[in-house]
Amino acid sequence: MPSSKQVGQESAANKKIGGVPTIHYFDFQSRGRGQVVRLLWEDAGIAYTDVRYSFDEYPQYKKSKIEDMNPTATIPV
């Protein structure tokens, strides 16, 4: 099961963008392309849900969950 955590508290900024966004990310245990999005949301005071997939979990979810969100089946989504 991918790890998921809620970052921040829902604020007026979340209401402006229509709710709490979710980022799905392949966890390399380091910073990558998804880090820029996380920092942007944190600076703007936007709460978000961070879902990370490990090396073992990614192939299982790639065809089912991730391909539903992004036709190219790549992340971050």
Automatic annotation (TrEMBL):
It comes from the Eukaryota. PROSITE patterns: GST_NTER (PS50404). Residues 21-77 form the GST N-terminal domain. Gene3D superfamilies: 1.20.1050.130. InterPro entries: Glutathione_S-Trfase_N, Thioredoxin-like_sf. This is GST N-terminal domain-containing protein.
